[in-house]
Amino acid sequence: MLQNIRVVLVNTSHPGNIGGAARAMKNMGLSRLVLVEPRVFPSHEADARASGATDILESAQVVATLEEALAGCTLVFGTSARDRRIPWPLLDPRESGLKVVEEAGQGAQIALVFGREDSGLTNDELQRCHFHVHIPSDPAFSSLNLATAVQVLTYEVRMSWLAAQGQPTKIEKDEVASPRSEELATMDELERFYEHLQQTLVAIDFLDPEKPRHLMARLRRLYGRSSVSRAEMNILRGILTETQKAARGELQKRKDQ
Amino acid sequence: MLQNIRVVLVNTSHPGNIGGAARAMKNMGLSRLVLVEPRVFPSHEADARASGATDILESAQVVATLEEALAGCTLVFGTSARDRRIPWPLLDPRESGLKVVEEAGQGAQIALVFGREDSGLTNDELQRCHFHVHIPSDPAFSSLNLATAVQVLTYEVRMSWLAAQGQPTKIEKDEVASPRSEELATMDELERFYEHLQQTLVAIDFLDPEKPRHLMARLRRLYGRSSVSRAEMNILRGILTETQKAARGELQKRKDQ
């Protein structure tokens, strides 16, 4: 489905940005790059910034007009720095990502079009787009670097694609470790821990056994909100056991021997 | 609220990436940049890539250690390319953006930490973070350019911030509903606590001082995710102090007298 999505860069001035865009695309699982009259291409600078995404540069299509770049496309998204005179369907990157994946999944051929570093897309070019996408930057400093703009849009495509695949956005399949992958301590284990903790605090003279309430309540609140795992609980209980031995002077005796 | 958020770049090799990160930050309305031992800075290349965000470079703080960079922080997010052996609370960029804005709105001082271009953050550095953030890239080509990684995370912060601004009643409600009425412990207070904890565990023979890594990592994870308040930290430190006395046999001596 991702192969139905192409990134189109129009009249790019700095070849480094083409390389940066290629890298961003490959990071996000996209591969099809179309360049409309780039000022310099191919280029060592593009290769350097691509940092391993040179396959995307090598297979990039170089064309003379936006029309050629959009050949076969059924849905075109154009990035726009600001509102234009003509009102147009405007999306933020997240909405674009959702729409791109929805439509690509139904077989649409999709283009994400990015304009010149200094002046973006012309009004004529923007009118060839079905949707305009605006990255919500600070109005006081609104112009993103071309490669980072490509990164934001392709990131939203990937987030949306992962969600559509039913894949988690944060843990790769081969990765095991979630903080919740460990079994949590049960409520009664937690209670036994609090009892043990209280006895230990009394043993080290930290807690007055006559009025344990306030301090124990605070400690319960602290550990209670942490979702302590069983493994962690075992560590804490181990610490308490050793502390009790220390309180009985056993460590000192052992060292004296 | 956005001024409570700092971006921390650790041991950056290429000054161009520092400039690119500064530009991305300014685009997204952030301004506070901290550099931990950058290889080259200041630099013309950084200025060129900053493309007008030179004010951020000029006011950037250069420090020698990550610890200094995190001084005063109450919540730290570290970017991670992959999972480590020890499971850690892991967020995707969107979840991070939501959490950053929620916590910054309640006065938290927040750091977004980015590692080296080639090798990211070390395990030690990652263990100083409360949350790890993974940008869901293609596992076959997963390493993002540093500046574009900064762009993705700061974009999500801005999206979340804009949403929060558009629904002021929701933010007010969250603030009222928050259990968080206490001031949080800062990162350096937390570090001093871990040091104290480690010394104490050695004193009670629970921790082998030759290989403290794994156990301390687990304990850092446990306390790190709890957002420990300053008052709670004082209680924990008090317990440690009494435990150390017990380990020295002082309690026993007192009772023997």
UniProtKB/TrEMBL annotation, chains A, B:
<dbReference type="InterPro" id="IPR004384">
    <property type="entry name" value="RNA_MeTrfase_TrmJ/LasT"/>
</dbReference>
<dbReference type="InterPro" id="IPR001537">
    <property type="entry name" value="SpoU_MeTrfase"/>
</dbReference>
<dbReference type="Pfam" id="PF00588">
    <property type="entry name" value="SpoU_methylase"/>
</dbReference>
<comment type="subunit">
    <text>Homodimer.</text>
</comment>
<comment type="similarity">
    <text>Belongs to the class IV-like SAM-binding methyltransferase superfamily. RNA methyltransferase TrmH family.</text>
</comment>
<keyword id="KW-0949">S-adenosyl-L-methionine</keyword>
<keyword id="KW-0963">Cytoplasm</keyword>
<dbReference type="InterPro" id="IPR029026">
    <property type="entry name" value="tRNA_m1G_MTases_N"/>
</dbReference>
<dbReference type="GO" id="GO:0106339">
    <property type="term" value="F:tRNA (cytidine(32)-2'-O)-methyltransferase activity"/>
</dbReference>
<keyword id="KW-0819">tRNA processing</keyword>
<dbReference type="InterPro" id="IPR029028">
    <property type="entry name" value="Alpha/beta_knot_MTases"/>
</dbReference>
<protein>
    <recommendedName>
        <fullName>tRNA (cytidine/uridine-2'-O-)-methyltransferase TrmJ</fullName>
        <ecNumber>2.1.1.200</ecNumber>
    </recommendedName>
</protein>
<dbReference type="GO" id="GO:0160206">
    <property type="term" value="F:tRNA (cytidine(32)/uridine(32)-2'-O)-methyltransferase activity"/>
</dbReference>
<dbReference type="GO" id="GO:0003723">
    <property type="term" value="F:RNA binding"/>
</dbReference>
<comment type="function">
    <text>Catalyzes the formation of 2'O-methylated cytidine (Cm32) or 2'O-methylated uridine (Um32) at position 32 in tRNA.</text>
</comment>
<dbReference type="GO" id="GO:0002128">
    <property type="term" value="P:tRNA nucleoside ribose methylation"/>
</dbReference>
<feature type="domain" description="tRNA/rRNA methyltransferase SpoU type">
    <location>
        <begin position="5"/>
        <end position="155"/>
    </location>
</feature>
<dbReference type="GO" id="GO:0005829">
    <property type="term" value="C:cytosol"/>
</dbReference>
<keyword id="KW-0808">Transferase</keyword>
<keyword id="KW-0489">Methyltransferase</keyword>
